[in-house]
Task: inverse folding
């Protein structure tokens, strides 16, 4: 795995920094074990291709079980921060069956960030999982910003 | 921040981010009907947070023990009442058996009653069960004393904690090392209690139900992260309960053959004669004894075997060598 992307003892990306900047070409690809991970990684590559070809978007965020030690991540959770360069035509090109066919949960975010309740803060909070009952309540986790 | 607070934070975040996104789309002149796909992810997040994660978070915040089954049935979130009832009953029965085998209750004429019972914190079709301990029944000024004064509470709490220890031990090649280390620091964790803990861990994952792949044990009284008992660990538990520590002292005792568990070859000898103070002795019998055991349920029998005793020299666990009607 990439030097800065070693998961900590709780199976998350370490904090600080909360946001780990990494180029797509430097990504290790498949994080951890799990039968569906190679397929999910393929979807991430396909998604990157879509962004490059049809939009001016050159970065996206990755959060969730895919970048944790979770043994069976259901999907890759992707966040797109839209910019003023993005046109209506670009937005329409992003109408794809991401969940149904790609295995991606894509969330779109406006360029302006709400002050307290924003995705940067939210990404740092682990999701409840029975297996996580024992982790410290104050634990925060890291997430990725992938540039193309 | 509790788990529920984390989920609430996430829910609020989805709402505020959706509001910003709506404003952005409006500014760009895209009709909302054509921007529906941009909200799909947020709406999915809202569903997942509200329907799945918030109930689980509440259960994690309030459960002393959480049991989650994994497998086909759990994944689909469809569970028949029959199956739910069977899992729930097994879980309840094993907790009761462990509690009853706790050293502190060995001399008590103890009956499982509502006021010593566990309280349910979660029970979902995706097969997550959560329980919390009741308040100690004895009233005292400080909480620690109340717990110490209430043997039922202590036995129940120790049982849940030990269930986690057993699950943790099964992750290792040699579980007895972990169990013995734990037992060395706990006077009430003797061979009888260990045996019931191992049987409980084995029984939590039904042997014949292939739609259940594993069971995970976690919660406030379970130290460390969630412990998974899959088929491999199940086999490990099964192996140990058939070959765990054989006591060396011999014992002959007469009593009534009760609480038979044919699956693991255990029964309890109750209403002991000859002035023993304990309420019963947990017995492990061999296959060659099964016919006799089947024919003598609730009857008075004489048993000879090797036993381990508590500090007051009362028998606790007996490996049956011979038995006959009395």
Result:
């Amino acid at each position: 795995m990439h030097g800065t992307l070693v998961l900590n003892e709780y199976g998350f990306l370490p904090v600080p920094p909360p946001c780990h900047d990494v180029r797509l070409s430097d990504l290790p690809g498949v994080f951890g074990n799990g039968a569906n991970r190679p397929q999910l990684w393929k979807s991430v590559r396909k998604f990157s291709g879509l962004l490059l070809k049809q939009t001016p978007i050159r970065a996206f965020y990755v959060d969730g079980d895919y970048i944790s030690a979770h043994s069976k991540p259901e999907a890759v959770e992707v966040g797109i921060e839209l910019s003023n360069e993005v046109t209506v035509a670009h937005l329409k090109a992003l109408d794809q069956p991401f969940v149904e066919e790609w295995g991606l949960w894509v969330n779109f975010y406006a360029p302006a960030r709400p002050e307290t309740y924003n995705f940067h803060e939210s990404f740092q909070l682990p999701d409840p999982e029975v297996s996580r009952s024992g982790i410290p309540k104050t634990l925060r986790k890291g997430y990725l910003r992938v540039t193309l | 921040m509790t788990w529920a607070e984390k989920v609430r934070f996430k829910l609020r975040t989805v709402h505020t981010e959706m509001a910003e996104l709506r404003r952005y789309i409006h500014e760009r002149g895209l009709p909302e009907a054509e921007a529906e796909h941009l909200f799909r992810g947020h709406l999915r997040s809202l569903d997942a947070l509200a329907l799945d994660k918030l109930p689980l978070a509440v259960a994690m915040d309030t459960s002393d023990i959480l049991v989650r089954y994994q497998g086909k049935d759990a994944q689909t979130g469809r569970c028949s009442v029959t199956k739910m009832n069977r899992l729930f009953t097994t879980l309840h029965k094993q907790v009761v058996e462990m509690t009853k085998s706790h050293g502190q209750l060995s001399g008590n004429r103890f009956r499982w009653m509502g006021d010593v019972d566990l309280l349910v914190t979660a029970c979902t079709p995706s097969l997550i069960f959560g329980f919390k301990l009741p308040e100690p029944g004895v009233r005292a000024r400080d909480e620690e004393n109340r717990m110490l004064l209430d043997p039922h509470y202590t036995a129940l709490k120790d049982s849940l904690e030990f269930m986690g220890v057993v699950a943790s031990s099964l992750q290792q090649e040699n579980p007895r090392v972990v169990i013995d280390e734990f037992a060395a620091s706990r006077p009430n964790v003797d061979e009888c209690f260990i045996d019931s803990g191992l049987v409980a861990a084995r029984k939590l994952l039904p042997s014949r139900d292939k739609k259940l792949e594993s069971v995970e044990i976690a919660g406030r009284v379970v130290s460390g992260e969630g412990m998974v008992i899959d088929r491999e660990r199940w086999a490990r538990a099964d192996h140990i309960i058939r070959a765990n520590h054989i006591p060396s002292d011999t014992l002959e005792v007469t009593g009534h053959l009760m609480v038979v568990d044919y699956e693991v070859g255990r029964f309890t000898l109750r209403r002991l004669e000859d002035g023993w103070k304990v309420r019963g002795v947990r017995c492990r019998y061999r296959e060659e004894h099964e016919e006799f055991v089947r024919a003598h349920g609730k009857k008075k029998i004489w048993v000879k075997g090797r036993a381990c005793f508590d500090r007051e020299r009362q028998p606790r666990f007996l490996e049956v060598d011979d038995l006959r009607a009395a």
About this structure: The radius of gyration of chain A is 15 Å. The longest strand of chain A covers residues 76-81.
